[in-house]
Amino acid sequence: PKRSASITGQVVRARGTVSAVLSLAGKREDVDFAAGFPAPRVTLPGYRTLDLSAAYRLPFAHGAATQLRLKVENLLDTDYEGIAGFPAPGRIIRIGTTVQLGG
Protein backbone atom coordinates (compact mmCIF):
# COMPACT_ATOMS: atom_id res chain seq x y z
CA PRO A 1 0.00 0.00 0.00
CA LYS A 2 1.02 3.59 -0.53
CA ARG A 3 0.02 4.35 3.06
CA SER A 4 0.38 2.21 6.14
CA ALA A 5 1.00 2.81 9.83
CA SER A 6 1.16 1.04 13.14
CA ILE A 7 0.72 2.24 16.69
CA THR A 8 2.23 0.26 19.57
CA GLY A 9 1.60 0.61 23.28
CA GLN A 10 2.97 -1.31 26.24
CA VAL A 11 2.32 -1.31 29.97
CA VAL A 12 5.08 -2.84 32.13
CA ARG A 13 4.50 -3.85 35.74
CA ALA A 14 6.62 -5.77 38.25
CA ARG A 15 5.04 -9.12 37.39
CA GLY A 16 4.15 -8.68 33.74
CA THR A 17 3.44 -6.71 30.61
CA VAL A 18 0.52 -6.00 28.32
CA SER A 19 1.11 -4.83 24.74
CA ALA A 20 -1.14 -3.75 21.88
CA VAL A 21 -0.39 -3.10 18.21
CA LEU A 22 -2.89 -1.40 15.89
CA SER A 23 -1.88 -1.81 12.23
CA LEU A 24 -3.45 0.17 9.40
CA ALA A 25 -2.98 -0.55 5.70
CA GLY A 26 -4.43 1.52 2.87
CA LYS A 27 -5.85 0.25 -0.38
CA ARG A 28 -3.33 -1.19 -2.79
CA GLU A 29 -2.95 -2.53 -6.31
CA ASP A 30 -2.35 -6.23 -6.91
CA VAL A 31 -2.66 -8.82 -9.68
CA ASP A 32 -5.33 -11.55 -9.43
CA PHE A 33 -3.65 -14.63 -10.93
CA ALA A 34 -6.67 -16.80 -10.00
CA ALA A 35 -8.84 -14.93 -12.55
CA GLY A 36 -7.08 -16.43 -15.58
CA PHE A 37 -4.63 -15.21 -18.20
CA PRO A 38 -3.82 -12.44 -18.63
CA ALA A 39 -4.15 -11.77 -14.91
CA PRO A 40 -6.19 -8.61 -14.26
CA ARG A 41 -5.08 -5.85 -11.93
CA VAL A 42 -7.29 -5.43 -8.86
CA THR A 43 -7.48 -2.92 -6.05
CA LEU A 44 -7.57 -4.49 -2.59
CA PRO A 45 -9.32 -2.44 0.09
CA GLY A 46 -7.54 -1.10 3.14
CA TYR A 47 -7.83 -2.79 6.51
CA ARG A 48 -6.86 -2.53 10.17
CA THR A 49 -5.90 -5.19 12.69
CA LEU A 50 -5.40 -5.17 16.44
CA ASP A 51 -3.00 -7.56 18.19
CA LEU A 52 -2.74 -7.95 21.96
CA SER A 53 -0.18 -9.80 24.06
CA ALA A 54 0.40 -10.28 27.75
CA ALA A 55 3.00 -11.98 29.94
CA TYR A 56 2.70 -12.69 33.67
CA ARG A 57 5.56 -13.91 35.88
CA LEU A 58 4.34 -16.58 38.28
CA PRO A 59 5.17 -15.90 41.93
CA PHE A 60 5.77 -19.53 42.98
CA ALA A 61 8.62 -20.36 40.62
CA HIS A 62 11.26 -21.60 43.21
CA GLY A 63 14.45 -20.38 41.49
CA ALA A 64 13.07 -20.54 37.94
CA ALA A 65 11.71 -17.55 36.05
CA THR A 66 8.33 -18.82 34.79
CA GLN A 67 5.93 -16.73 32.71
CA LEU A 68 2.47 -17.38 31.36
CA ARG A 69 1.99 -15.83 27.92
CA LEU A 70 -1.08 -14.94 25.88
CA LYS A 71 -1.14 -13.51 22.36
CA VAL A 72 -4.20 -12.67 20.30
CA GLU A 73 -3.59 -11.75 16.66
CA ASN A 74 -6.35 -10.02 14.68
CA LEU A 75 -8.43 -9.58 17.85
CA LEU A 76 -11.28 -7.93 15.91
CA ASP A 77 -11.40 -10.88 13.46
CA THR A 78 -11.00 -8.56 10.46
CA ASP A 79 -11.57 -10.13 7.02
CA TYR A 80 -8.91 -8.95 4.57
CA GLU A 81 -6.52 -10.09 1.86
CA GLY A 82 -2.89 -8.99 2.06
CA ILE A 83 -2.42 -10.64 -1.35
CA ALA A 84 -5.21 -11.07 -3.91
CA GLY A 85 -6.79 -14.52 -3.59
CA PHE A 86 -5.20 -15.29 -0.20
CA PRO A 87 -7.50 -14.41 2.70
CA ALA A 88 -5.71 -13.66 5.96
CA PRO A 89 -6.45 -15.94 8.89
CA GLY A 90 -9.10 -14.80 11.35
CA ARG A 91 -8.48 -14.39 15.04
CA ILE A 92 -5.55 -16.48 16.35
CA ILE A 93 -5.12 -17.15 20.07
CA ARG A 94 -1.86 -18.51 21.46
CA ILE A 95 -1.30 -19.49 25.08
CA GLY A 96 2.02 -20.70 26.40
CA THR A 97 4.64 -20.58 29.06
CA THR A 98 8.34 -19.94 29.27
CA VAL A 99 10.66 -21.32 31.94
CA GLN A 100 14.18 -20.01 32.46
CA LEU A 101 16.33 -22.23 34.65
CA GLY A 102 19.52 -21.14 36.35
CA GLY A 103 21.18 -17.74 36.18
Give a short synopsis of this structure.
The protein is mainly β and 103 residues long. The chain has strands at residues 4-12, 16-25, 28-31, 41-44, 47-57, 65-73, 81-83, 86-87, 92-100.
How would you portray this structure in words?
The chain is mainly β and 103 residues long. It has no helices and nine strands. Strands 1-2-5-6-9 form a five-stranded antiparallel sheet, with no helix packed on it. Strands 3-4 form a two-stranded antiparallel sheet. The chain is elongated and about 65 Å long.
Layout of helices and strands:
Layout: E1 4-12, E2 16-25, E3 28-31, E4 41-44, E5 47-57, E6 65-73, E7 81-83, E8 86-87, E9 92-100
Antiparallel strand pairs: 1-2, 2-5, 3-4, 5-6, 6-9, 7-8
What are its keywords?
103 residues, two-stranded antiparallel ribbon, mainly beta, 5-stranded antiparallel sheet, 0% helix
Helix content: under 10%
List the uncertain runs.
none
Strand order of the largest sheet: 1-2-5-6-9
Shape: elongated
What letter string, H or E per element, gives the SSE order? EEEEEEEEE
Please state the CA-atom Rg, rounded to the nearest Å: 19 Å
Please report which band the strand proportion falls in: under 5%, 5-15%, 15-25%, 25-35%, 35-45% or over 45%.
over 45%
Number of strands: 9
Q: Taking all residues together, what is the mean pLDDT?
A: 92
Quickly count the helices.
0
Distance between the termini: 46 Å
Which structural class is indicated by helix and strand composition?
Answer: mainly beta
Summarize the biggest pleated sheet. 5 strands, antiparallel
